[in-house]
Amino acid sequence: MKNFYRTLTAALLLAWLISPLGAQEVNQEAVQELTTDVCVIGAGSAGCAAAITAAREGAQVVLIEKDKILGGTGSNAYVSNWEGGPGCNIAEELFERMHAAGGAGVGKETDIGARGAFGIKMVTDSEPYEISLVRALPPEGGYRSIVFLPEAFDKAARDMMAETGRVTLLDETTYIQPEKSDDGTRVLAVLAKAADGRMIRVQAKVFIDSTGSVILCRDLGCESRLGPEPQSEYNESLAPKEPKLTLNAITRCYRIDPKENPKREVLDENQKTGFPKCAYVTGWLDGPRMVNMMPTLPGKDLVELGYDECMKRSEVIVHNHWNWLQTQPGFENYELTALAPELGIRESYRIVTQYVLNQADLEATWPNQEHNDMIAVADHPCDIHGEGGGLVHVKFAYGIPYRCLIPKSELTNLLVACRGAGLSRVAAASCRLQRTMIQFGNAAGVAAAWAARDNVPVDKIDVDALVKKMDARKRYPK
């Protein structure tokens, strides 16, 4: 097993998802210094929640985000859809704000005339938010989703941060590298580069890695995993006995809008390529829709081809897909208006934490799990797209311990809250959804604020009080 991971690390560490700019020589005299209680890297679903809750707990927060639009994959990859399943107070508040602005609603399976491998979730004002909070035991008519527009999430998250008066948001700012204490037990600071070229050094008492690909944790030397673990590591029947590198398939989503005289997609013979004849479409009956063709490219293409080449190839596939989809009933009056600016990446690196959630937790479900530090709850199927994939349903909701957010390392002031948290590959295929990530960020933000306030390691906070505050068991309505 050790040889397997050593081989992966040697082959892939420099090939994919390393720090964007790597270690650099920096003119310290030109660096802007910021000091704060909590520093969050990455403003995806978890990072936004972490910044909001840490600030609401009284901490000063610096949030670093490379993109212009907040929301991570949900906003920038157009996966602007929360699948049915449990959420928390932060998710509900985000929804309420987006809904009030006309940028979100509850999506229900809707017949628009299309026939074939389609999932069509259209917003209806008659559906309450609460009906979307289950997946394993869906209500009549199937599970409901939350559909939203990227710009609506961005505004709601910014407003919630601004209202605390304690969040310094550094958007369009790229994390570069960390700085550790001499004894290796603390993260002292991180260096980042703003869009205008300014170098910014952020010192903080506690750091939260919400980068999705856990770039900060890996730069700090935390042990990580990529792809499936061997079956023997966590005694998982769904894991391979002798794993090879496979990753959840990549998606390139796109937006379509109704037009009076929609432009038709016309392809030359040399532009034609294969594509999946299926689609998961979310949106409004007479308004904007996001199209997710599900598997666009194999996940390991990120390793073998690189991000830029995957973007190029996926664009060709999108145009072929839309050329077909516009001929289907229910799409005749729509026009392709935008391709997602980023790839929808379902799976990347995961950090080895004090406890790693695994198949046994998903199968045991909450009533039979023996953890006393549950801070989140989920009930989505174990869903792997592409090679070696499939859909394995869970029978009931299961809990996620706080220890899954604490890297197993000497570092005492570091948390991880994103899809790269302490999850086996099997568990990650169920846990990776946005509302689960919001729960991770919620818990991490509170924990980080408490650790900074009391000047204690992140694993020495009052965990019982955190569990009580999160009240994850009561989030599941069944």
The gist of it:
The chain is of the alpha+beta class and 478 residues long.
Can you tell me about this structure?
The chain is of the alpha+beta class and 478 residues long. The chain contains 13 helices and 21 strands. The protein has helices spanning 2-12, 45-56, 73-76, 89-100, 150-164, 215-219, 231-234, 301-304, 307-325, 359-364, 425-431, 434-454, 463-470, and strands at 31-41, 61-64, 81-82, 104-109, 117-123, 145-148, 167-170, 173-180, 187-194, 199-209, 224-225, 254-258, 278-283, 289-292, 334-339, 350-351, 374-378, 382-384, 390-392, 398-401, 414-416. The strands form 5 sheets. An 8-stranded mixed sheet has the order 3-6-4-5-13-14-12-15. Helix 2 links the parallel strand 1 (31-41) and strand 2. The chain is globular and about 60 Å long. The model is unreliable at 1-23 (pLDDT under 50).
Keywords:
single chain, 478 residues, alpha+beta, eight-stranded mixed β-sheet, seven-stranded mixed β-sheet, disordered N terminus
Summarize the SSE layout with pairings.
Elements: H1 2-12, E1 31-41, H2 45-56, E2 61-64, H3 73-76, E3 81-82, H4 89-100, E4 104-109, E5 117-123, E6 145-148, H5 150-164, E7 167-170, E8 173-180, E9 187-194, E10 199-209, H6 215-219, E11 224-225, H7 231-234, E12 254-258, E13 278-283, E14 289-292, H8 301-304, H9 307-325, E15 334-339, E16 350-351, H10 359-364, E17 374-378, E18 382-384, E19 390-392, E20 398-401, E21 414-416, H11 425-431, H12 434-454, H13 463-470
Parallel strand pairs: 1-2, 1-10, 2-7, 5-13, 10-21
Antiparallel strand pairs: 3-6, 4-5, 4-6, 8-9, 9-10, 11-16, 12-14, 12-15, 13-14, 17-20, 18-19
